[in-house]
Design brief:
It is a single chain. It is built from 8 helices and no strands. With about 150 residues, the chain is an all-alpha fold. The termini are far apart.
Length: about 150
């Protein structure tokens, strides 16, 4: 009962923030439920790569790349050649500030399948390269994306 009261208070506070308040409250509720359900699923079956992948995506949305990376690693142990998992790992590394590792991984994904996610890996690689100050490589990556 206390948890419900605390949740209602937090939701009310988010609504009071302004125009983005209702959307933020909806995101907190939605992602919280999904996260709890998937974590229960992972506890029941630690070898479920799909649940780990979905949890990694949720943690990336919630800006928790360290947690996302742990779930990606668990899923990659089961399926190491999955392109989606490699992309999620690279995104988590980019969010953690590990730009060199992320740029290398994203370029490898783009080289393996240039049409994967409509070329988004090469665009994210350009972001990582720009963060590293490697401007000519970033520009080449953007040309490749275009």
């Amino acid at each position: 009962m206390i948890g419900l009261i605390v949740f209602a208070g937090v939701a009310y506070g988010l609504v009071a923030i302004g125009r983005a308040g209702p959307y933020l409250a909806w995101l907190v509720v939605r992602h919280g439920r999904q996260t709890r359900a998937l974590e229960a699923l992972v506890r029941a079956n630690p070898a479920d790569a799909t649940a780990h992948r979905d949890l990694a995506q949720l943690w990336l949305v919630r800006r928790r790349p360290g947690r996302a990376l742990r779930h990606v690693a668990a899923a990659q142990a089961r399926d190491p050649d999955d392109l989606e998992l490699a992309y999620l790992a690279a995104q988590a590394r980019l969010a953690r500030g590990e730009h060199a590792i992320a740029a290398e991984a994203l370029q490898a994904i783009a080289a393996r399948d240039p049409r994967f996610r409509y070329g988004e890996p090469i665009l994210r690689a350009a972001d990582a390269l720009a963060a590293l100050g490697r401007w000519t490589e970033a520009e080449a990556a953007l040309r490749q994306f275009a």
